């Protein structure tokens, strides 16, 4: 089926007519953003594909357009920090061998909230998959996962359905990957009835000089963009925009299409094959000649443009070279779908054949999963333009920085949340009853029914497994693959915070989240070296919500 370049011209339209047109096209841009795209960024009427791409890359999920200014307050460097909050995952040095090489823990923290609310199993499972790929794409071997849940009223049947589906999804994806789950935390509160929070931490290990970066290397003009993994379909299309808007019950069925479909066994094969490729690239001294990135929100478009633009380049993509799993979809779907189990390499042309043969022949991707393969779909450009071809049509042609960083807001916020004060708790008359009430409360109960569904000892690295202490403890380098002098190094990880503190005061809620997690780590004899956060907030246009952020 052929598609022509559909132009969407807003010239001369009133604001209400522009808004109506955007709603009909299901594009979550504001009138102001739309006019900025047409009049300032492009200087012409945009194509439909360009509007969709700008809406995804300009979503809160991708661009942090409201929060970026506030996030700059964080300290993201230090003596042990090899890579702060800049790429797909952070990297912290934890050991040095006798040859002076620093060995590092790679850490990614991510949420999958909206998907888990409407399709619990698939939402949580794909959250694990994406988080694991973020760590692996730094050149790391993945060694651990944790999860952190916030669910609604425990007496609600809907909460029970979401709870059971999410836990099963975490287990159903993480266990087949052969990655141990070393901890987590859980709270119930009716404030999460209509929007659960599901956050995940994944850990990996890598030697500092063997880190692979999620951007094109120097002098990359003309380098190939290689798409690896599952064939692209319509699953997860619009997932980035969907993750950045308020959930509406009436649109529940419509939004299910924005949730991806998981295939843990394909991902396990992709992990194994990619670890083997890492070894080849190390042996040939090619680690610094390539770039590597997970296909997260925004799919092919997101990965290709961010790999290029981060290094000051542009990119060119040909949609007819993308291997697909469904026919007759609009090209913007192939371009922006968040189909799972995919990632992308930036490769010098002289290495490309090695990568293609490695995945397609040596590890037989097409034979392992129908339609899966490695394909060259584009190239890096040195002029900063992002161009996408669909057959004979040029459906996107825009400056790469405008697409990735075009929108930035300094939204008004209220310094303190309304109606949030410290509760007035009366003096109890029976402290024994109070103690029993606390011990029987769902937020204090034993979590064994959850963590017993997870594989906790696979890989043989776990020293203190979930449920045995305040933090998970493991020895990441305890095999003959690693220098003998670092094999006894241990690491500890905790995820924790009490959300009720945030209802009283967001600032002190944040403080207590940090100190509670650090106490948990200290309680097992470890020294805190780095923290990560996964901030999940409501409508960013609400001054109270912005104030809590």
How would you describe the overall organization of this protein?
This protein is an alpha+beta fold and 549 residues long. The protein is 36% helix and 19% strand. It contains 21 helices and 16 strands. A hairpin with a 5-residue loop joins strand 2 (90-96) and strand 3 (102-111).
Task: For the structure shown, list the relevant keywords.
globular; single chain; 2 domains; alpha+beta; 549 residues; six-stranded mixed sheet; 60s Ribosomal Protein L30, Chain: A; Phosphoribosyl-aminoimidazole Synthetase, Chain A, domain 2; 16 strands
Question: What is this entry, summarized?
Answer:
This protein has 549 residues and is of the alpha+beta class. It has helices at 15-25, 31-42, 48-57, 60-63, 68-71, 113-118, 120-136, 157-177, 239-242, 252-255, 264-283, 299-309, 331-336, 349-362, 365-368, 400-405, 431-440, 448-451, 499-504, 506-522, 543-548, and strands spanning 81-83, 90-96, 102-111, 141-151, 181-188, 197-207, 224-229, 291-294, 314-318, 342-347, 373-381, 385-390, 393-399, 462-464, 472-474, 491-493.
């Amino acid at each position: 089926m052929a598609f022509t370049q559909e132009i969407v011209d807003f010239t001369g339209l009133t604001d209400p007519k522009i808004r109506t047109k955007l709603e009909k096209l299901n594009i979550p841009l504001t009138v102001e953003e739309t006019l900025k795209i047409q009049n300032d960024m492009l200087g012409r009427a945009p194509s439909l594909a360009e509007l969709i791409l700008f809406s995804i890359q300009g979503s809160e999920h991708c661009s942090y357009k409201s929060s970026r200014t506030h996030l700059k307050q964080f300290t993201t460097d230090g003596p042990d920090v090899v890579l702060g909050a800049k790429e797909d995952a952070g990297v912290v040095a934890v050991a040095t061998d006798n040859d002076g090489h620093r060995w590092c823990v790679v850490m990614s923290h991510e949420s999958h909230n909206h998907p888990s609310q409407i399709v619990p199993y698939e939402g949580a499972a794909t959250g694990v998959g994406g988080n694991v790929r973020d760590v692996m794409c730094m050149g790391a071997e993945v060694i651990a996962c944790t999860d952190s849940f916030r669910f609604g009223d425990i007496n609600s049947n809907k909460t029970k359905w979401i709870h059971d589906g999410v836990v099963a999804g975490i287990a159903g994806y993480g266990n087949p990957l052969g990655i141990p789950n070393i901890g987590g935390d859980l709270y119930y509160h009716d404030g999460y009835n209509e929007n659960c929070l599901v956050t995940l931490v994944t850990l990996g290990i890598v030697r500092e000089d063997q880190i692979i970066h999620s951007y094109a290397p120097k002098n990359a003009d003309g380098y190939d963009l290689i798409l690896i993994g599952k064939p692209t379909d319509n699953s997860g299309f619009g997932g980035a925009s969907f993750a950045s808007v308020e959930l509406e019950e009436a649109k529940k069925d419509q939004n299910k299409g924005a949730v991806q479909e998981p295939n843990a066994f394909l991902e396990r094969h992709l992990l194994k094959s990619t670890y083997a490729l890492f070894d080849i690239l190390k042996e040939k001294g090619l680690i610094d000649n390539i770039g590597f990135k997970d296909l997260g929100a925004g799919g092919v478009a997101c990965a290709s443009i961010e790999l290029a633009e981060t290094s000051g380049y542009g990119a060119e993509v040909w949609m007819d070279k993308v291997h697909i799993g469904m026919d007759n979809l609009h090209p913007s779907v192939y371009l922006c779908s968040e189909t799972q189990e995919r990632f992308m390499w930036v490769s010098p042309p002289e290495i490309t054949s090695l990568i293609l043969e490695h995945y397609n022949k040596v590890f037989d991707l097409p034979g392992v999963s129908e339609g899966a393969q490695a394909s060259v779909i584009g190239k890096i450009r040195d002029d900063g333009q992002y161009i996408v071809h669909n057959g004979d049509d040029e459906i996107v042609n825009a400056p790469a920085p405008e697409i990735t960083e075009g929108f930035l807001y300094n939204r008004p916020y209220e310094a303190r949340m309304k109606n949030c004060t410290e509760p007035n708790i009366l003096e109890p008359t029976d402290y024994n009853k109070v103690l029993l009430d606390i011990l029987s409360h769902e937020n204090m109960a034993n979590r064994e029914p959850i963590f017993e569904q997870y594989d906790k000892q696979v890989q043989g690295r776990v020293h203190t497994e979930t449920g045995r202490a305040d933090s998970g403890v493991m020895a990441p380098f305890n095999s003959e693959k690693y220098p003998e002098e670092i094999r006894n190094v241990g690491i500890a990880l905790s995820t924790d915070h009490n959300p009720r503190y945030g209802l009283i005061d967001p600032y002190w809620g944040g403080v207590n989240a940090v100190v509670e997690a650090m106490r948990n780590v200290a309680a097992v004899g470890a020294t805190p070296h780095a923290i990560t956060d996964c901030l999940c907030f409501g409508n960013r246009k609400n001054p109270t919500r912005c104030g809590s952020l």
